[in-house]
Amino acid sequence: MAIETKLPFDQEYVRSFSEGSGEPSWLLDLRLQALAKAEELPLPKPDKTKIDQWNFTEFANHVVQSAPISSLEELPEAVKALIDLNEEVKNLYVQRDNTPAYISLSENLKEKGVIFTDIFTAVREHSELLQKYLMKDGVKIDEHRLTALHAALLNGGVFVYVPKNVEIDTPLQAVYIQESKDAALFNHVIVVAEDNSRVVYVENYISTMETSNAVVNIVAEVFANTNARVFFAAVDNLAKGTTTYVNRRGIAGRDGRIEWALGLMNDGNTVSENITRLIGDGSYGDTKTVVVGRGEQVQNFTTSVIHYGKHTEGHILKHGVVKDSATSIFNGIGKIEHGASKSNAQQESRVLMLSEKARGDANPILLIDEDDVMAGHAASVGRVDPIQLYYLMSRGIPRVEAERLIIHGFLAPVVNEIPIEGVKKQLIEVIERKVR
Amino acid sequence: MAVLTIKDLHVSVEGKEILKGVNLEVKGGEIHAIMGPNGTGKSTLSSAIMGHPKYEVTKGSITLDGQDVLEMEVDERARAGLFLAMQYPSEISGVTNADFLRAAINARLGEGNEISLMKFIRKLDEKMEFLEMNSDMAHRYLNEGFSGGEKKRNEILQLMMLEPKIAILDEIDSGLDIDALKIVSKGVNEMRSSDFGCLIITHYQRLLNYITPDYVHVMMQGRIVKSGGPELAQRLEAEGYDWIKKELGIEEETVEQEA
Fold this sequence. Notes:
Domain SUF system FeS cluster assembly SufBD core (chain A): 177-410
Structural class of chain B: alpha/beta
Largest sheet of chain B: 6 strands, mixed
CATH superfamily of the domain at 3-90 and 165-248 in chain B: P-loop containing nucleotide triphosphate hydrolases
Order of helices and strands of chain B: EEEHEEHEEHHEHEHEEEHHH
Low-confidence stretches of chain B: none
Family (chain A): Belongs to the iron-sulfur cluster assembly SufBD family.
Strand order of the largest sheet of chain B: 6-9-10-3-11-12
Protein name (chain A): Fe-S cluster assembly protein SufD
Helix content of chain A: 10-25%
Largest interface: A-B, 24 and 28 residues
Structural class of chain A: alpha/beta
Strand order of the largest sheet of chain A: 4-3-7-9-11-13-15-17-19-21
Number of domains of chain A: 2
Pfam family, one (chain A): SufBD_N
Mean pLDDT of chain A: 94
CATH architecture of the domain at 3-90 and 165-248 in chain B: 3-Layer(aba) Sandwich
Oligomer: heterodimer
InterPro entries (chain A): Fe-S_cluster_assembly_SufBD, SUF_FeS_clus_asmbl_SufBD_core, SUF_FeS_clus_asmbl_SufBD_sf, SUF_FeS_clus_asmbl_SufD, SufBD_N
């Protein structure tokens, strides 16, 4: 494993990194612009969480060279468990730190024009297509320091492109492995579903070792064009020593549908932002998030659905469990812009507190600039309901097991949606481990 | 043969005494009905036997086969053989009826003796069919979105799956139409055996047309004020409670007003 150490990152570094990767000039320009912005723009300001002391920028190595693998058998057990090794045709991408380690896409999908490749290859082979989507209409480089830094230092990720009228039945799976204790990952995921197409994408972020002072900065941009459907499932499971910024953004065109199922199980401090913009008339966004906070970790989760088109429908569901001395802030925002008549914005945020010192906060917000709409929200913060416990125990189930059932049930809305059995099983196990 | 023995039971809720000395013995093979107007302490009795966290026993004893029930946690009471079909069963989102029932059965059997999945499914299918329940009820979340009648039927399903020694049915008939009432009664009658004792709490005689009790007790002012056979229920149906109040010189039967 060769390690490059060129820090602090400056223009020179970014230029040489970009050229070293054989990137087109538009991307180098984007990086350099972004780097300049990163120096001047402030950090994001997630509501009710102070992050100015968090480490988003200090790390030992921007790039860690890992070797590709020749067989999936070489992967660590925890990673293998996520993958159906017996499946003959795999649509799978595995990334070790920054290194694309394994990629496989069925011939059938290749023939249909589907692109599923690591971001570096995509930059070289599909430059124009990528340029159209990379940090343009989804997440912009100048939103704040972390999006700028992301663009400047982007060093991993995947590109998914589904042409018009192509419907993919089996999920495309990506696994991002953090296997160096002080790695920096600036991972970029783009999913484009052209008109009338359909795709399911499932990703895992997993640490295979304890980390210290590691930085992960993730941006995912999802485009569901006219009448396209994207289902995006993610399980984030990064170690305690990793500070994570993750921004997942969806843009839905006319009658487009974007559904998210996010299991946010990081053990370190995390800022997560998930915004779905319903641009086209009749578009639909559904976002389900479950979270477990434990130890001392501080997490902030902002979920937003913004309605621009008429007859748009948005649903937000967030269920969080907080234990030990952890803090979890849940901001849910349903926003209906002027002109988005006949739209419907619904949200539900619930926080379950498992200990005295845990802190949880659910802030449902509705911002409505149009008269002819429907909107609703429900929010609650509390302990495991003693009457529910009594009911289960009255059937002979011991208290600990009864609590476990209630908690798993509370987090089921996302677990049940995960379309890959190994990933679902792993999420259940992670929950089990975290709430114990 | 199981024996549930309640002696001089006094129970308070939030500092207010509701039960003021209840004495009752229910044996395996017997069906007892406790009747009485609203607010006389019937449901308090059932909650206190099961160990509801809001109810505090201030005096008296409850034993099951000589074991001190009051010393037991709620789940221990259930594993000892008690069951309460609740008036307002909880809804538990994300936990399927089937998973819940399996967890409950396995809690009784203990580690290493768990029921096999096949055996469990066979038993569940059989009982659900007996209670004329739609098979999708097994995979729905526990009581979530169930109608009142479905919830009651689901309580009886649990009764039949768990096969307790002594069951308490707390107003299992409230909110049921006649068809549902017949099915619920069919379930309880199916359980009847020398190993099964039952305490039915109701304020309508209607249920007792389908489940014939061996003993009928009337509760007023937090005590059992009269006991008899099935004919007592019929007289209550025909004449109401006034004659008992007159006979015993009770002006106000409820607990609340009486203090």
